[in-house]
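Ticket #4471: structure output looks truncated?

Reporter: J.K.
Steps to reproduce: submitted the chain below (406 residues) through the standard prediction queue, then opened the result file.
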Amino acid sequence: MHDHRRLGRELGLFDTDPLMGAGLPYWLPDGAVVRHTLEEYVREAERAAGYRHVYSPVLGKRELYELSGHWDHYRDDMYPPMELGGEQMLLRPSLCPHHALIFRSRTRSHRELPLRMAELGGMYRSERSGVLGGLTRVRAIQLNDAHIFCTPDQAAEEAAGALALISRAYADLGIRASRHRLSLPGGGGKYVAGPALWRRATALLREALDASGVAYEAVEGEAAFYGPKIDVQITDPAGRETTLSTVQIDFHQPERFGLCHTGPDGARHRPVMVHRSVIGSVERAVAHLLEEHGGAFPPWLAPVQLVVLPVGEDQEERAHAVVREATALGLRAEVSGPADGSLGARIRRARLVPYQAVLGAREAADGLLAVRLRDGRRPGVLPAAEFLRRVEQRVRARGTALWEPA
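Returned output as attached by the reporter:
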């Protein structure tokens, strides 16, 4: 069983410092590579699905969160206000109020809908010290968030499209969903009023789940304060279940913010907000990937994808040339030479690197590489150009497979 906190430190991915504070990890160079690659993957997938990306501030006036409902229903998880120039400012606990303001920044036509707005943005939650742990519960969160502004008739289809995006990402990352949960309101006063809108939103989410062919179970008491949601649950090696991805349908905030678009009839109509997150927070996603794969990330996500191992000093110049060729193809490659120890020790040290290329005197002279894969397979001795091309194709295709037959 793998612990992402131990692995993250052993592999030099992330760490913490008491002077920065609990729940505020920092990313080391290899961890930053994983995070950046994951973020770019999500942005690319979203662009292909018709999303437009925005940036919004991590601060907002208290009035903003009073309008959205966060101040009334979510205040215990927010940081206290800061007094700035006679105004109370807050670190945002969520991105949706900011996106609502961007939507209403100008007149919108029905021809723009569905308008898919995405952001990989920071948000901040005042988690109790006792629940903090590694990357799974942190106080500064980088969230893969998006909000789709659409008509009620489009909402179920957009929610189903979000579920498809999540499913594809899980396949590429080697993540298994343990179950899908339809999270409904429970008792108590933590939910906004409007029984008819709750029923309508729930019906649309059920329609999306049914259209996607996804088995699910309904659970009361797990909804967001403003609407029901689909939670995609994952389970860590210790059997602990948590939510990674979500899809939500929200009639509440469009009404609170007075969001409108001009319909085909020339009248003003209220859109629906579909909230969705493909990989949830980057921190929680990386924590789960570490524990799921034991640090052996899928080839496209690995911080180092190829290590070239010259047998002796005479092959080091050629090894560095191979690394330059790999880098020109967009691969992350490095040389591990004789100064780093015996060949066997270097191979063991690179055990989590997807591709290893041993370079002896014969290989250097003939432009060849003796190829080893992380899983122990040895595809044989290949021309360097062919090997690099095949690795580049495998990385570009993403997914979890290490090698494809020629």
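Triage note (M.O.): checked the attachment and the full token line is present. The radius of gyration is 24 Å.
Status: closed, working as intended.
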